[in-house]
Amino acid sequence: MAAPNVLILRAPGTNCDAETAFAFQQAGAKTEVLHINRLLEQPTLFRQFQILCVPGGFSYGDDIGSGRILGNQMLHHLVDEMLRFKADGKLILGICNGFQVLMKSPVLLETDAADGPSATLTVNDCGRYQDRWVRLQTQGTKCVFLTGIEQMYLPVAHAEGKFVARDEQTLKRLEAAGQLVLRYAPADNPNGAMADVAGVCDATGRVLGLMPHPERHIDPTQHPRWTRGEAGAVGDGLQMFRNAVAYFG
Asked: Which of 80, 139, 218, 248 is the most buried (most CB within 10 A)?
């Protein structure tokens, strides 16, 4: 099969679109970076792609909350096309701010009409921005993007990355369903997330949101201690993008 087409969604303030596109290209995909206004003008553009990625950055400056404006634009104007995209068996990835955006739509986690969203991402326990490298562990085999990956070392860069489930019962339900697919190593939790959750997937395993940045560690020289011989042959994040491409192979 031909290389899958990846839509990298850009909005005012997004600053990781080029790195994310490069990561997908290194994994063998074709990429196109489109501004949100293009999709709002022509929502059917989604149908030209097999993978949708909402990258990191500070969409709309996070002026009223991280990812809130872009998330509401997508929820109120593009949700039908996004749900169709998902129903067609395609892949969706949200990284950092993109994770915050996906949490505001029904494509990632269910929203109960009476109780509201299953979970949210809120202000770090430390009350400030965190920019550092963390060790991560995968959980289960549900998520397409994490196939064959047991652990990763990736950077985080966020002020509102604390995963909080609606209640303990919801957390247990998500865990039992295998949707809490990525966790911080206990000593590396940068934000106080419940159960050390760094990333979650939907019930199909084809939609993933995560706070760490895999696109910032696709080459061994990006490892902060590569000169000391601690880096692998490739960056830890590259396999995620390879998995997405291989899914359509």
From this structure: 218
Q: How far apart are CA 77 and CA 93, in angstroms?
A: 19
Q: What are phi and psi of 174, to 5 degrees?
A: -65, -40
Catalytic positions are 96, 213, 215
Contacts of 71 (CB under 8 A, 6+ apart): 100, 101, 102, 103, 104, 105
pTM: 0.96
Residue whose token pair is 């940045």: 213
CATH assignment of the domain containing 151: 3.40.50.880
- Whether residue 118 contacts residue 109, with contact meaning beta carbons closer than 8 Å, is answered with yes
pLDDT by residue (tens digit) across 173-222? 999 999 999 999 989 999 999 999 999 999 999 999 999 999 999 999 99
Structural domain for 192, as ranges: 5-246
Structurally, the chain folds into a number of domains equal to 1
Task: Please answer whether residues 154 and 214 qualify as being in contact, where contact means their C-beta atoms are separated by less than 8 angstroms.
Answer: yes
The residue to which tokens 């396999």 are assigned: 239
DSSP string computed for 8-27: EEE-TTB--HHHHHHHHHHT
44 in Cβ contact with 7 (< 8 Å):
no
The tens digit of pLDDT for each residue in 86-95 reads 999 999 999 9
The token pair at 169 is 């019962």
3-state DSSP helix/strand/coil % of the chain, to nearest 5: 35, 25, 40
